[in-house]
Amino acid sequence: MGLDGPEHLSKRGNRCSCRLAGCCAKGSNIRGEGSSICKNFSRGVALFPLHFSLLALDFSFHTLLLLSRCLSLTHSPATLHPQALLHCDFRTMPIHFPLPFIFTLHFVVLALLFSTLSIPSIHAQKFQPIPVAYPAYASIEGQGFYIIGGAKEAITGTSITQAFMIDLSVSWNASDPVFKKLPEGPGSAFAPTTVLSDGDIFTLHIGVGYIYKVKSNSWTLFGNSKFPIQTGYAATNPESGLVYIAFGTNSTLHVLDPSSKTLNTLKVPRLTNVADTQELVWSAHLRSVILSTVDPSIMYVFTPSKVSESSHGWSLMNTTGFQPAKTFLLQACFVPAYGGSKVITITVLDESNSTISMAQILDIPTGKWTASPTMALRAGGACGVSGDYFIVWGGGTVKDLERFTDGIVVYNMKTNEFVSGVHRTSSLVNTNST
Fold first, then answer.
1. Strand ranges inside 294-339, DSSP E
2. CA-based nearest residue to 265, from 275, 278, 250
3. 71 lies in which domain range?
4. Which residues fall within 8 angstroms of residue 203, CB to CB, at 6 or more apart?
């Protein structure tokens, strides 16, 4: 990859789940190749009994036809008796059996047998991402949902350098999404990531910046400086090109200029008793940065065009209708939808039941939250928006963060229901990139 960082991260060898000799090729991808090879080998072995059964049936069929032919040539029905078989001369008897049908069955079974054993050459190449939590992610409308790195074992566990995208230009089912493998990238969790104004993807890996070039499908370093930011969330102002970064309880907003590669820091003013900001998004609707807080009824808003005013561009947004009223998880997604006129997140249903969650949508013009139907809990996943669809990949449960999933949840914001997949139409309602 030629980058100072990702290539030195440790990679654990994948283990094949199949113990049959020779079923896994050396160096094969376990989740993509090994399991497919093992399954197909087992299917091929399962066809052997069928093949030998047909051979036995063929032999019995030949024998019966031979005896029937012999008796019909040498005896009349009135003289048939068991000892008549002793007078059959099989060497001189003409044979006119319907052999083509039997041989056709043999060839069909053999074709199935060998084609099954060779199927891995097709299935082995299908990429299946390794389940992780807290990966970096960004989505480009009508193009791709990009997912980078993440924690493989636990919130503080081993990070991996996998990078891939979910194709947003085509329709797919949640049971079989269209994954596309990308060159390996930075491998940290909670990495601030955003789509730049030029369409490329920026991410910070333990203070080191990287750019994923979408058109060339390659990674480059973002300058030579190391920034004092370890984790967080990022959003881009498409008008100025500036990148805003925030996370946690330090109540600061970092402003990164990609052109000069300089970093400035703004102090979030204490406009209310709740001053600790969490995640952030850029709202094209407000032309502002929206920062969440530990209280979902209060949002901070920073408007760059008003920075010269007495408020220095800062204001509060009071919201209503959030469920539950005082629970806002750090593990939640926080992404814009419909051009930034809405923001969507995922939270638990309540503190006493940490196995149920829901998607919640904030309507920016009215400041009102609305909730989706409940679903199995999903925390620490990657979140993206495409048209009416809110998509969540990866993550796991709050109680057991070592049990991750590679499943996909798709929620239709327009119809307020969880659906089976993304069904692409010719026109896209949402013009949002995150």
1. 298-302, 314-318, 334-337
2. 250
3. 46-122
4. 136, 148, 185, 186, 191, 192, 193, 209, 210, 212
Flag whether 184 is in a domain: yes
Q: Which of 252, 254, 255 is nearest to 275 (CA)?
A: 252
Residue 24 lies in a domain: no
What pTM did the predictor assign? 0.70
Domain endpoint, select from 87, 122, 157: 122
Same domain, yes or no: 269 and 414:
yes
Tokens describing residue 290:
């929206």
Instruction: Say which amino acid occupies 217.
Output: N
Amino acid occupying residue 9: L
Assigned domain for 158 exists: yes
In tens digits, the chain (434 residues) has pLDDT values of: 445 443 333 333 333 333 333 333 333 333 333 344 444 444 444 544 554 565 555 555 555 555 555 555 444 444 444 454 445 554 454 544 454 544 444 454 455 544 444 444 444 458 899 988 889 999 999 999 999 998 886 655 678 899 999 999 999 999 999 999 999 998 888 899 999 999 999 999 888 999 999 999 999 999 888 898 888 899 999 999 999 998 755 678 899 999 999 999 988 887 776 656 678 899 999 999 998 887 778 889 999 999 988 889 999 998 998 876 555 555 568 899 998 999 998 876 655 556 677 888 999 999 999 989 988 777 888 999 999 999 999 887 665 556 778 889 999 999 999 999 999 874 444 445 66
DSSP β-ladder status, 353-363 and 375-376: antiparallel
Measured CA distances, 353 to 99, 145, 347, 377, 394 (Å): 68, 30, 12, 10, 21
Same domain, 187 and 51: no
Please check whether residues 159 and 269 belong to one and the same domain.
Answer: yes
